[in-house]
Write a structure and sequence with these properties.
The chain is mainly alpha-helical and 245 residues long. The protein is built from 13 helices and two strands; from the N terminus they run H-H-H-H-H-H-E-E-H-H-H-H-H-H-H. The protein has helices spanning 2-11, 14-20, 23-29, 36-48, 54-68, 73-78, 100-113, 120-124, 129-139, 154-164, 188-194, 205-218, 225-235, and strands spanning 93-95, 98-99. A two-stranded antiparallel ribbon has the order 1-2. Strand 1 and strand 2 form a beta hairpin. Helix 2 packs across helix 3 and helix 3 (23-29) packs antiparallel against helix 4 (36-48). The chain is globular, with a radius of gyration of 17 Å.
Length: 245
């Protein structure tokens, strides 16, 4: 398995990956702003809606960043502009089961939690990676991303990968953290691909920690290269690489 994933990572095309992955929408955001808080908040809210088919996630994320936030997520959150967002959304729906009131509640939480901070990195800097993931899950709780230990917190772990891992296509904005501290991006699809390697067969935090330990044993300097490899393998088999949490 390790040799297959190493080969997959070493030969994958980052541009083709970004063309279909939600992370690509964050790269588009970075063409309009160099503010770290803009990028952090935009990436977090994109990660929040990253479940289901990527063919639907990506245009939904672009609409959110471009049409609702005008490529300025920090102003959108800190000014309270979010309260007027999605006013014409059909059936009060932002994406799938995420409705407008819940989206506004999440934005209100972020406005409160980041008050007095210039970046999200600074707000979380005194926490371990695990505690930072749990804290972000608490901020996003109305959107039902899951909490430890019943959930692997997949979308927040993916956001952390984008922020911390310093290798393209990830962003590496959070230089205060090491990629060795990241946790595996674990969902039902990843469980299916790795079930022969794990004792825990469901996407719980225990399974996430088990897969993380395995990735770290394979490459302690860059364990989440194997997350990208798994997603790339999934792309070659089916279009819905981001399964339900």
């Amino acid at each position: 398995m390790k040799s297959i994933l190493d080969h997959t990572y070493d030969t994958f095309n980052p541009e083709a990956f970004l063309a279909v992955d939600p992370c690509g929408t964050v790269h588009q955001l970075m063409q309009h702003t160099d503010s770290q808080l803009d990028i952090e908040l935009g990436a977090l809210l994109v990660a929040m809606i990253s479940w289901g088919s990527r063919k639907v996630i990506v245009p939904t994320a672009i609409h959110m960043l471009r049409d609702e936030m005008h490529w300025q997520p920090a102003h959108f959150i800190k000014s309270g502009e979010y309260a007027q967002s999605y006013h014409d959304a059909k059936r009060q729906c932002v994406y799938r089961t995420l409705n407008v009131p819940t989206f506004h509640h999440v934005c209100h939480n972020l406005q409160h939690e980041l008050d007095g901070y210039d970046t999200m990195e600074a707000r979380l800097n005194n926490l371990t990676a695990k505690d930072a993931i749990a804290e972000i899950c608490r901020w996003l709780a109305p959107a039902r991303l899951g909490t430890m230990p019943s959930s692997a917190c997949k979308r927040v772990c993916m956001f952390m990968r984008w922020m911390v891992r310093p290798y393209y296509p990830d962003l590496g904005l959070w230089t205060s953290r090491s990629p060795a501290d990241l946790y595996a991006v674990m969902d039902t699809h990843v469980c299916q691909q790795t079930r022969h390697l794990l004792k825990h067969k469901r996407p719980t935090w225990q399974a996430c920690e088990e897969l993380t330990a395995l990735f770290n044993s394979w490459n302690p300097a860059d364990p989440l290269r194997y997350d990208i490899a798994l997603m790339t393998l999934a792309d070659s088999k089916n279009d819905t690489a981001l399964a339900s949490p």
